[in-house]
């Protein structure tokens, strides 16, 4: 099976089936509560959600996370996402560009994104295993294809473990990521729905990686997607593994805390389903939040539908900022946040002092 047709399978399965891990494990973001400020003492009209990302201005710390490109029939999805991101002034990632490296004629399914959105940060994408095979020199080619501001190198070993044609040789990846991090194209190391731990973040920081997209557990499950594929081809063993590992991974809020504790710049993604999740992510120390799956179906319609799906995120972020007394998005880092339930237990078991997020912030102001 070619890379291009596998990508089509993924889109079809994501459009037609429940593929999220939520429902199996409670949403970790629901364990986080921003403390309401009954006297915000700011004028809502003065709130400014804008920020800078990869040298460009965004209207809000938001992005549409990597999804697609690499098949003629998905070009329109990419263009609709790009037109919407451009209208809203937010960033966008494209899906793995591997197919375009294998087949020149597919390049325009990616480059059309830059044509539709000349001014926003656009992030290219390649798998870590592919990067290891091709060598870091490939990053210049990927960046040039879409005039990218950075390239996300994705880690998807959960998916590879359940995929019939999965590539499970993860040896030597840290070394190649180190070489890439010291090259001319900025890189972001990105998971794809299973999160990044403190230990992994530390080994990435050691080799020079500066920015991580945690893409934690709580949203799209690649084990879930591959479960459907395994069932379709009648591979009962892999189907069983897919179900077993459906909710494997580090919940997104936990992963943000773990990676921030190493001092890395963090993008929050994996189960971001509202502007409230964005605000909570920023409060935990992320500088930006991304969402993928909820934008897929609207993007099969038109750019307007994507704008309609994304606009409430911006609105809710603004309301959160008002109700916590923040004029600037960056101020959310300092607002008190109470961590409850399983997320509290998890972070406590990993040795984190949760007072850092709640009472402590107020007492030390
Ligand atoms: C249809 C689809 C295709 C995806 N393809 C890629 C990809 O090529 N590269 C990548 O890094 N992530 C890919 N992702 C993962 C997303 O970027 C994101 O990390 C993940 O879906 C979690 O976010 P969500 O819960 O908001 O969907 C894809 C997601 C979807 C839904």
From TrEMBL:
Single GO biological process annotation from the record: isoprenoid biosynthetic process
Keywords of the record: Cytoplasm, Flavoprotein, FMN, Isomerase, Isoprene biosynthesis, Magnesium, Metal-binding, NADP
CDD domains assigned: IDI-2_FMN
KW NADP (keyword) present: yes
Sequence ranges assigned to domain FMN-dependent dehydrogenase in this UniProt record: 27-99, 184-333
EC number: 5.3.3.2
Reaction(s) this enzyme catalyzes, per UniProt: isopentenyl diphosphate = dimethylallyl diphosphate
Pfam families (UniProt xref): FMN_dh
Residues the entry annotates as binding Mg(2+): 160
Annotated binding of substrate, by residue: 6-7, 96-98, 159
Cofactors that this protein relies on: NADPH; FMN; Mg(2+)
GO MF annotation, one: isopentenyl-diphosphate delta-isomerase activity
Predominant cellular place of this UniProt entry's protein: cytoplasm
Residue sites binding FMN per the record: 65-68, 96, 125, 190, 215, 271-273, 292-293
Range of residues in the leader sequence: none
Cellular compartments annotated: Cytoplasm
SUPFAM superfamilies for the chain: FMN-linked oxidoreductases (SSF51395)
GO cellular component, one term: cytoplasm
SUBUNIT field: Homooctamer. Dimer of tetramers.
Function: Involved in the biosynthesis of isoprenoids. Catalyzes the 1,3-allylic rearrangement of the homoallylic substrate isopentenyl (IPP) to its allylic isomer, dimethylallyl diphosphate (DMAPP).
Family assignment from sequence similarity: Belongs to the IPP isomerase type 2 family.
Name assigned to this protein: Isopentenyl-diphosphate delta-isomerase
Species in which this protein is naturally found: Methanothrix soehngenii (strain ATCC 5969 / DSM 3671 / JCM 10134 / NBRC 103675 / OCM 69 / GP-6) (Methanosaeta concilii)
């Amino acid at each position: 099976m070619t890379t291009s047709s596998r990508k089509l399978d993924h889109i079809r399965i994501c459009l037609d089936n429940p593929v999220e891990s939520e429902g199996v494990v409670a949403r970790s973001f629901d364990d986080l509560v921003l403390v309401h400020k009954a006297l915000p003492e700011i004028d809502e009209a003065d709130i400014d959600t804008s920020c800078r990302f990869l040298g460009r201005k965004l209207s809000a710390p938001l992005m549409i996370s990597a999804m697609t490109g690499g098949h003629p029939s998905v070009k329109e999805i990419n263009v609709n996402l790009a037109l919407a991101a451009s209208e809203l002034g937010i960033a966008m990632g494209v899906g793995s560009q591997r197919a375009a490296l294998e087949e020149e004629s597919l390049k325009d399914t990616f480059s059309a994104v830059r044509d539709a959105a000349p001014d926003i940060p656009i992030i290219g994408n390649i798998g870590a295993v592919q990067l290891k095979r091709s060598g870091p020199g490939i990053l210049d080619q990927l960046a040039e294809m879409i005039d990218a501001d950075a390239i996300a190198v994705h880690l998807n070993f959960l998916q590879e473990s359940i995929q019939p044609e999965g590539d499970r040789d993860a040896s030597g990846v840290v070394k190649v990521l180190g070489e890439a991090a010291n090259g001319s194209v900025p890189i972001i190391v990105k998971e794809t729905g299973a999160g990044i731990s403190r230990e992994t973040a530390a080994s990435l920081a050691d080799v020079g990686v500066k920015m991580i997209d945690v893409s934690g557990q709580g949203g799209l499950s690649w084990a879930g997607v591959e479960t459907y594929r395994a069932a379709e081809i009648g591979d009962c063993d892999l189907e069983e593994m897919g179900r077993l590992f459906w909710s494997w991974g580090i919940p997104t809020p936990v992963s943000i805390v773990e990676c921030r504790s190493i001092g890395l710049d963090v993008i929050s993604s994996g189960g971001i389903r509202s502007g409230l999740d964005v605000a909570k992510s920023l409060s935990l120390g992320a500088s930006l939040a991304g969402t993928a799956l909820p934008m897929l179906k609207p993007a099969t319609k038109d750019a307007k539908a994507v704008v309609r799906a994304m606009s409430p995120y911006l609105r809710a972020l603004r309301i959160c900022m008002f109700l916590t007394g923040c004029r600037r998005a960056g101020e959310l880092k300092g607002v008190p946040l109470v961590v409850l339930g399983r997320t509290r237990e998890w972070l406590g078991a990993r040795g984190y002092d949760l007072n850092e997020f709640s009472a402590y912030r107020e007492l030390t102001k």
